[in-house]
Amino acid sequence: MPKDVEQELVDRLSIVTMDAQDVLVLGVAHPETLAALARRFDQAAFVVADCSSAMLAALERALPGELRTRVTTRCIDHDALPFKRDTFDLLFSSFYLPLYDELNAVFASWQSVLRADGCAHFSTLGPDTFRELRAAWQAADPENPYHAIEPLDMHDVGDGLVHAGFKEPVMDRDSVTITYSDAEALLRDLRCHTIGNGFSARAPGMMGRRIWRNFVAALETARLDGRVSLSVEIVMGHAWCGQGASQRRREDGTVDIAFDSVVAELRKGKTGSER
Question: Are 150 and 127 in contact, with CB atoms under 8 Å apart?
Answer without folding.
Answer: yes
